[in-house]
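Lecture 7 notes: from sequence to structure.

We start with a single chain of 126 residues. Read the sequence below before looking at the structure.
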Amino acid sequence: MKRFLAIALMLVSFGFFALPPAPAEARCIITGTYCIHEHRDYNGEACVWKGSVPNYLGQTSLNGFSCNDMASSWTNNGTGPIRCLVSFMHANYSVRMWEAYGDHMKSDWVGDEHNDKASSHQWVRC
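Now the structure, written as C-alpha cells:
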C-alpha cells in the first residue's frame, strides 16, 4: 500500500492525472479586472489586470503572463464609477484604440486593424 501511495504521489508531482487548465475566459471573471486574450474568441493565454497599466512591456499580469502586443479579444469586469476602460496602441496611454464602457463588457475580436497591438490601458470614469 505504501508503495502504491508513493507511486501515486510521484505521478501527481510530475503532472500526470492533473486537470487541464481552465479556458482563458474562465480565468477572467474576477470583478474589477480587465483581461486581454491572446487569440480571438477568448482563447489562448489571458492577461488579467487590476488598475491602469501604462506599459505592458516588462510587466507581468496578475496571472503571470506578459501581454505586450498580443491582444485579440478582451473582457472588462470593471464595476462602480470606474468601470470604463480605454486601450492604447503604445505605452503611456498613447494612440487610443478601443473603449470598454460598461459593466462586464467584452469583445471576441478586436479587428484586423487592432489585432496584437495593445500596449497599455487606463481605467476612466464613465
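The helical segments are 2-13, 24-27. Keep this in mind for problem set 3.
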